[in-house]
């Protein structure tokens, strides 16, 4: 007997027990969103400039980036130097004697310079027209928004600015490793045990992040945290989708995804009240701590729930036991859930046939080479996963570079995500997967591209225009990403569904890695500041146009074979033609 049939006919598709577990396990996704999105604030680089070499306790409220400051370098020698302070360099406009005549660099003893550890003097320039540049070794930062961040503590600025992107890259690579190898590890150590271990690692590493002092330690803890996050939320997301019946599956899937956005709002609220990154990181670890405690406390409630991260077609807690031949334990779990839902399980159910059927259907992705139409579909889907992930994470991480208040922009991005998810829930079954998905990508891409128009027009409302268009882009991309989770498995046959899901996850992680660098990519000028938005918008439009070649899966039976999958598009076209003819007759 099929697991879905058992849920529909005997256990209940979304009863009291499933609602409790769905709500509880959704906290894993929320905690994952918190730890990834908090990097927008902990790695934020505020305005800065070189520290004034002649001032012991310099601050950003001192001379501005373009101010010219004249100092007497050594009393008694009468030598003065005029220099300008910028973000990364001290530019020396001239070196002169006390009578104002130019002084040759060869005659100048640079050891006279006060606080010589604050710069690195370039000896390449010399002569009476002395003009040289010194690289900063110390900086002062604007503390009007944040008292301190990782970037200000470890000086991720100037030629070290890319280190903040490296740090986020380690977080994304950790997620890739967790998504790829999480399922195999679950088979080895057990489903529930792996989740408990990964959640504990997630909490401990999140707390340890507050003690990092260099990029190497930061990269290590981010790698571990990303691995733990992916392993935990992959399992939680899969369980919540498969714990309920088919009729409620898309609603529950969108709800679980939306808890990520609630994590964004939580981070935005914390960052507004906590402006010191150590305390902010500790406060952001609270959801993980609460969930670990709650899961252990409620162990008796879900002690029998075991699941596989890679099994995406049936309820994994019983499926895993059935695979091991422990049918009686699987039946006890179903009986327990049915009883909690106020239902009663039949005296005898046969789980073995479903497991045997699944094992016989499992095939390699090499089978795509035998079917060019499905191979093209796979390429389009993988590109869409890459583009959606890159654009979503890129827009999320780029919030700190938008014009306007960073806290307002960040919270608005979370709110617009929730609005997009609500739209998806209301329209997904009525309009169809393909139409909403393509429209969402195109709207999101156009929103990002059009951000350049308010900047070109200028005026006091340009900030609001850029913000509104950027949030439109986030609305569209977040909606499309949520749909893609449900849309992808419906386009491929049962035998290839798990493999496609794994390949899609890898493609998405590659997009996340690329986003960690593109989010911080800027050029000089206001339009150059929006370069990431232009890239994200272009990718979104390309993905949306490519997705027009995909079939509609709404109210279409899931394909059981490769032939069924190939015929899906033909079936939809014939159905559309029939509907059009009926509408003309009426």
UniProtKB/TrEMBL annotation:
<feature type="transmembrane region" description="Helical">
    <location>
        <begin position="219"/>
        <end position="239"/>
    </location>
</feature>
<feature type="transmembrane region" description="Helical">
    <location>
        <begin position="374"/>
        <end position="394"/>
    </location>
</feature>
<feature type="domain" description="Major facilitator superfamily (MFS) profile">
    <location>
        <begin position="103"/>
        <end position="555"/>
    </location>
</feature>
<keyword id="KW-1133">Transmembrane helix</keyword>
<dbReference type="InterPro" id="IPR036259">
    <property type="entry name" value="MFS_trans_sf"/>
</dbReference>
<dbReference type="InterPro" id="IPR020846">
    <property type="entry name" value="MFS_dom"/>
</dbReference>
<dbReference type="GO" id="GO:0016020">
    <property type="term" value="C:membrane"/>
</dbReference>
<feature type="transmembrane region" description="Helical">
    <location>
        <begin position="194"/>
        <end position="213"/>
    </location>
</feature>
<feature type="region of interest" description="Disordered">
    <location>
        <begin position="59"/>
        <end position="78"/>
    </location>
</feature>
<dbReference type="Pfam" id="PF00083">
    <property type="entry name" value="Sugar_tr"/>
</dbReference>
<feature type="transmembrane region" description="Helical">
    <location>
        <begin position="469"/>
        <end position="487"/>
    </location>
</feature>
<feature type="compositionally biased region" description="Polar residues">
    <location>
        <begin position="67"/>
        <end position="78"/>
    </location>
</feature>
<dbReference type="InterPro" id="IPR005828">
    <property type="entry name" value="MFS_sugar_transport-like"/>
</dbReference>
<feature type="transmembrane region" description="Helical">
    <location>
        <begin position="162"/>
        <end position="182"/>
    </location>
</feature>
<feature type="transmembrane region" description="Helical">
    <location>
        <begin position="406"/>
        <end position="429"/>
    </location>
</feature>
<feature type="transmembrane region" description="Helical">
    <location>
        <begin position="279"/>
        <end position="297"/>
    </location>
</feature>
<keyword id="KW-0812">Transmembrane</keyword>
<feature type="transmembrane region" description="Helical">
    <location>
        <begin position="436"/>
        <end position="457"/>
    </location>
</feature>
<keyword id="KW-0472">Membrane</keyword>
<feature type="transmembrane region" description="Helical">
    <location>
        <begin position="20"/>
        <end position="43"/>
    </location>
</feature>
<feature type="transmembrane region" description="Helical">
    <location>
        <begin position="251"/>
        <end position="273"/>
    </location>
</feature>
<dbReference type="GO" id="GO:0022857">
    <property type="term" value="F:transmembrane transporter activity"/>
</dbReference>
<protein>
    <recommendedName>
        <fullName>Major facilitator superfamily (MFS) profile domain-containing protein</fullName>
    </recommendedName>
</protein>
């Amino acid at each position: 007997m099929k697991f879905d049939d058992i849920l529909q006919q005997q256990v209940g598709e979304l009863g009291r027990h499933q609602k409790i577990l769905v709500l509880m396990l959704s906290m894993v996704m929320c905690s994952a969103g918190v730890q990834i999105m908090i990097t927008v604030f902990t790695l934020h680089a505020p305005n800065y400039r070189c520290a004034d070499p002649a001032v012991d306790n310099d601050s950003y409220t001192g001379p501005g980036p373009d101010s010219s400051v004249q100092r007497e370098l050594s009393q008694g020698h009468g030598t003065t130097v005029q220099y300008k302070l910028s973000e990364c360099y001290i530019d020396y406009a001239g070196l002169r004697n006390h009578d104002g005549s130019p002084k040759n660099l060869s005659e100048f003893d640079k050891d006279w310079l006060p606080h010589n550890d604050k710069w690195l003097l370039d000896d390449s320039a010399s002569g009476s027209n002395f003009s040289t540049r010194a690289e900063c070794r110390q900086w002062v930062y604007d503390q009007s928004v944040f008292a301190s961040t990782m970037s200000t503590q470890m000086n991720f600025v100037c030629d070290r600015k890319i280190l903040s992107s490296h740090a986020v890259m380690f977080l994304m690579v950790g997620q890739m490793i967790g998504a790829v190898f999480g399922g195999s590890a679950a088979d080895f150590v057990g489903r529930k045990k792996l989740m408990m271990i990964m959640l504990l690692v997630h909490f401990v590493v999140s707390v340890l992040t507050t003690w990092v002092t260099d990029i190497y330690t930061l990269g290590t803890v981010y790698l571990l945290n990303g691995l733990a996050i992916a392993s935990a939320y992959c399992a939680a997301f899969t369980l919540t989708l498969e714990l309920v019946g088919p009729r409620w599956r898309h609603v529950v899937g969108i709800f679980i995804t939306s808890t990520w956005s609630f994590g964004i709002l939580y981070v935005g609220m914390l960052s507004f009240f906590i402006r010191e990154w150590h305390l902010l990181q500790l406060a952001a670890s609270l959801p993980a701590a609460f969930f670990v405690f709650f899961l252990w406390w409620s162990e008796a409630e879900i002690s029998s729930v075991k699941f596989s991260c890679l099994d995406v077609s049936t309820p994994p807690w019983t499926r895993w036991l059935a695979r091991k031949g422990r049918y009686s334990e699987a039946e006890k779990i179903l009986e327990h859930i049915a009883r909690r839902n106020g239902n009663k399980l039949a005296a005898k159910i046969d789980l073995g046939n479903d497991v045997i059927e699944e094992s016989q259907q499992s095939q390699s992705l090499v089978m795509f080479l035998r079917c060019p139409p499905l191979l093209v579909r796979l390429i389009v889907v993988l590109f869409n996963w890459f583009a959606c992930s890159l654009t979503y994470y890129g827009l999320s991480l780029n919030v700190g570079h938008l014009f306007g208040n960073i806290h307002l922009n960040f919270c608005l991005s979370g709110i617009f995500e929730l609005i997009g998810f609500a739209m998806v829930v209301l329209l997904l079954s009525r309009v169809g997967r393909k139409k909403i998905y393509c429209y969402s990508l195109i709207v999101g891409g156009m929103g990002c591209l059009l951000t350049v128009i308010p900047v070109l027009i200028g005026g006091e409302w340009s900030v609001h225009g850029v913000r509104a268009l950027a949030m439109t882009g986030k609305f569209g991309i977040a909606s499309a990403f949520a749909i893609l989770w449900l849309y992808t498995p419906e386009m491929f046959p049962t035998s290839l569904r798990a493999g496609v899901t794994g390949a899609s996850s890898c493609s998405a992680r590659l997009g996340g890695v690329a986003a960690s660098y593109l989010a911080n990519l800027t050029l000089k000028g206001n339009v150059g500041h929006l370069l990431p938005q232009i890239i994200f918008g272009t990718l979104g439009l390309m993905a949306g146009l490519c997705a027009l070649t995909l079939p509609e899966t709404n109210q279409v039976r899931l394909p059981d074979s490769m032939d069924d999958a190939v015929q899906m598009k033909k079936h939809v076209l014939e159905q559309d033609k029939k509907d059009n003819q009926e509408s003309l007759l009426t």
